[in-house]
Design a protein that fits this description.
2 copies of one chain form a homodimer.
Chain A (H helix, E strand, L loop, with lengths): L2 H10 L2 E7 L5 E7 L2 E3 L3 E7 L3 H8 L2 E8 L4 E12 L2 H7 L17 E15 L2 E6 H8 L5 E2 H5 L2
Antiparallel strand pairs in A: 1-2, 1-5, 3-4, 3-9, 4-7, 5-6, 6-7, 7-8
């Protein structure tokens, strides 16, 4: 897959899957709404601070994030670290009108947080083969990029 | 979610996501075609013995299997163990005409194997709440059931 094909898969996905180790030491996965991307290597997810995957990632930040399209048999798995942001800058960027139904106290609700996934490596899968990206390759591809809502961008 | 609602989510899914620890000790996930189920607790997946998720599960059989529907906001995650079957009984059950394109030597191709996921517990998520199932509860619900192609059954 080319950089553009990977970026297109990521941008057209509304949801992705995170893989992590939970507080009982089990493998666990969770489906998350994920449309804010900074190239291939960084992704933001708004979520409840109290949710079990956030609590598990506070304990063990090793994580993977998987974007896939069952209809085209494409997938990309990013391996790295989860960072939990509580600062207003991130929380404001991802806030949508109506989010009060999830976070009654608004942007500063302490149960509202932003999960950032930072990739150290990636592996992609497609009918025509698979391949790997190193941390250095991801950083080179993503150089100079900013966070943007990729889904909004391509559905314009 | 009721047993029927969980079983319906599992049966109507063509694909599921497995979560595991790979040979580099990373969290990893993989999308798999998964239509053979024995109730809620046991699932069969035909795959390549040489694939990285099978090799990783031989090393560390702790696994989770996640069925979800993004359009209805339903998900069920099963936690347990992976068993790799090489015996003809399983390989014949899941064999489809035309599978020679994946496994040129046919049913007995040593690169063809059946991955069984056996759940010790489950957690389900829906807009109206979440809940857990213990191993004992899963065994009671699944008592007397046999493996069947759930997708073929409901799409008749």
């Amino acid at each position: 897959m080319t950089e553009n094909e990977m970026m297109n898969l990521i941008n057209r996905s509304l949801f992705a899957t995170i893989g992590y180790t939970d507080e009982q030491g089990r493998q666990n996965v969770r489906r998350v709404f994920c449309v804010w991307h900074k190239g291939i290597g960084r992704h933001l997810i708004s979520t409840n601070t109290s949710s079990s995957h956030v609590q598990s990632l506070m304990n063990n930040p090793n994580v993977c994030l998987y974007f896939s399209d069952d209809s085209t048999f494409e997938g990309i798995c990013l391996y790295g670290t989860a960072v939990i942001h509580q600062d207003r800058e991130y929380k404001q960027l991802l806030w949508n009108e109506g989010d009060e139904k999830y976070y009654p106290k608004g942007i500063d609700d302490e149960d509202y947080c932003i999960l950032e996934i930072i990739a150290d490596g990636a592996r992609y899968y497609r009918f025509d083969g698979k391949g790997e990206l190193s941390k250095t390759q991801i950083e080179a591809l993503d150089s100079g990029k900013e966070f943007e809502n990729g889904y909004a961008k391509i559905s314009k």
